[in-house]
Amino acid sequence: MSQDLQIQEWASLQGLNTLAVPVTARYLVEVENPDQLKQALSWACNHEQSILVLGGGSNLVFAGDYPGLVIRMALRGRSWEQVDDHGAVLVLKAGENWHEAVLYAARSGYRGIENLALIPGTAGAAPVQNIGAYGTELGDCLDSVTVLNRQTLKVETLPASACEFGYRDSLFKHRPGLYIILEIRLRLSRNAPLKIGYRDLQDYFGDVNEAELTPLAVAEGVMAVRHRKLPDPAVLPNVGSFFKNPVIGLAQFRELQARFPDVVSYPADSQVKLAAAWLIDQAGWKGFRNSRVGVHNRQALVLINHSGGTGQDVLSLADDVRQSVLEKFGVELEMEPGIVGNA
């Protein structure tokens, strides 16, 4: 075993998850390169330990302590490739802070990810969820993902077409134990149209001529909008949007619209996407708090851990919200974050 690999026992994970849930890992290790990652995987295999790969801890709920080895991805580095007058490819190691990478690209004059500013987490976690906001998804500009295949322990490169991206979905969700993301490559543009059609952004920019905007200006606009609506996890622990916007068929939508004419919806190919925040609000949950956890008073999609709640407290509230929405609207909400740890 390499002396560089330091495995901690009974390590607290409270500071490593944005819900600030007080849980413990049986073992914890931080890896800074692929060789250390392979060593950690080998150690876990030899000691018959399960594995959890952890990025920024911003899209999961710990239902309890984790009984195996938590591998914290700390691979750092960013660089440019294929630079020309029209664009470039931005290469991000898995441990790079996502928001800082967005600002880095925007300040450099590149377009493509500015609408994804202020999304918490790391670059390596971004493809798993196919993160998206304000009319943009990661899959729109992702060129490829470099991964470690856990079965073969070989490094592979997956093109975007192989990642099976969907709405908050990807190959990495479907086959969670197969790949560990090492780096991502984003194809960014110097002159692609900026996306400010989302209503909140239209309100923010008003009558500003789109031709006068820069990607940094759009990123700053997104940040301003998110600051108004969403709590900072460092101040009020949360994992961002807790539920996906449900997609339903046209027939079901027409029935729902007949009962609730003000239902907020968006076209989704041949189906209809509903605003989960509107459903939760109308079910009476916006601003709800019990002694430990609650629903944010400005954004009903966000569940908050305001007073030292456990993962079970959060999940119990989520179940209550889902059941309430199902009973009122006949629509089932799906959670965005993953659930890990022993209940």
Automatic annotation (TrEMBL):
Record GO biological process: cell division; cell wall organization; peptidoglycan biosynthetic process; regulation of cell shape
Pfam families: FAD_binding_4, MurB_C
Pathway: Cell wall biogenesis; peptidoglycan biosynthesis
Keywords: Cell cycle, Cell division, Cell shape, Cell wall biogenesis/degradation, Cytoplasm, FAD, Flavoprotein, NADP, Oxidoreductase, Peptidoglycan synthesis
Domain of life according to the entry: Bacteria
Gene3D superfamilies recorded: 3.30.465.10, UDP-N-acetylenolpyruvoylglucosamine reductase, C-terminal domain (3.90.78.10), Uridine Diphospho-n-acetylenolpyruvylglucosamine Reductase, domain 2 (3.30.43.10)
Enzyme Commission no: 1.3.1.98
Cofactor(s) required for function per UniProt: FAD
Keyword Cell membrane recorded: no
SUPFAM superfamilies the record matches: FAD-binding/transporter-associated domain-like (SSF56176), Uridine diphospho-N-Acetylenolpyruvylglucosamine reductase, MurB, C-terminal domain (SSF56194)
GO cellular component: cytosol
A GO MF term: UDP-N-acetylmuramate dehydrogenase activity
Localization of this protein: Cytoplasm
Catalytic reaction equation(s): UDP-N-acetyl-alpha-D-muramate + NADP(+) = UDP-N-acetyl-3-O-(1-carboxyvinyl)-alpha-D-glucosamine + NADPH + H(+)
Segments forming domain FAD-binding PCMH-type: 20-191
PROSITE patterns in the cross-refs: FAD_PCMH
Active site positions, chain numbering: 168, 241, 336
Similarity comment: family membership: Belongs to the MurB family.
Function: Cell wall formation.
NCBIfam families the record matches: murB, PRK00046.1, PRK13903.1
Name the UniProt record assigns to this protein: UDP-N-acetylenolpyruvoylglucosamine reductase
Organism: Marinobacter nauticus (Marinobacter hydrocarbonoclasticus)
Lineage: Bacteria, Pseudomonadati, Pseudomonadota, Gammaproteobacteria, Pseudomonadales
Gene: murB
